[in-house]
Structure formats: C-alpha cells, structure tokens
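Exercise: predict the structure of this protein bound to zinc ion.
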Amino acid sequence: MSEHKLQEALDTLKGSNVRITPQRHAVLEYLINAMIHPTADDIYKALEGKFPNMSVATVYNNLRVFKEIGLVRELTYGDSSSRFDFNTTEHYHVICDHCGKIVDFHYPSLDEVESLAEQVTGFEVRNHRMEVYGTCSDCKTSH
Ligand SMILES: [Zn+2]
Ligand SMILES: [Zn+2]
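Solution:
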C-alpha cells in the first residue's frame, strides 16, 4: 500500500522534472509511513543517522519542493514549527490539546463553506482548513 504511494509520489517528482536524490527519496518515504504529521525537525532526527551530511535546512528545502508540486501539505501553527502532511486525499484533523498529536479523519469536503464565503465576502476562495480539538485516547486514560 505505502509502496504504491511511494511509487506514485516518485512518478509525480519525475513528471515535474524534480531530481530524485537519495535524501528526497528518504524524506518522502518517511512522510508516507509516518502518520504523525512530522515537523522538519522530526524528519531530520529520524534520518540524520542515514545522511550525516544532511541539515534541517536541507529537509526544509526538500519539503518546499514537495509542497510546490502538491505532494505535501504544510500545516502552520502560529510561531511553533510547521507540520507536514503527505497529501493523499482530502481530510481533516483532530488535535490533542495535551500532547499535540494530530489524527486524520475523513468527512465529506465542506465545499459549501467555500462558496458561501465567496458569496458573502466577494473573495476568490482558495481552500479551507478545519480542525477539531480535544483529548486523545492515550491522554484520556493517563489523566
Ligand atoms: Zn494526547
Ligand atoms: Zn493529515
């Protein structure tokens, strides 16, 4: 399953004329397998053993390339570091107030919100983001 996703992602890179370096390959693989919505720092820490010459800045640059061609989504949270999500299908996030864990869930896309916002404000709407907050099951049992 994730092998298939990885192959698709690599094809997208090729189709966008992005060079597939061993680091890019590893970052992609990590993003696809890690369901934790990692920060650039998380990815760096997970891969630094394999790529001693890699820096956090390199990871960021790779993530920016992936973002530009639509492979990953960047989730920004004010001044804390961005998290990165491998962009498969449209989904929403539920976030734990205690440990910060982000879990995906699927719900029909709220497209009506976009058209309503356009009608009411005259904006040309690009996308929307909805997040649900609470206490995850791990934190619930330890409290
Ligand atoms: Zn939690
Ligand atoms: Zn997600």
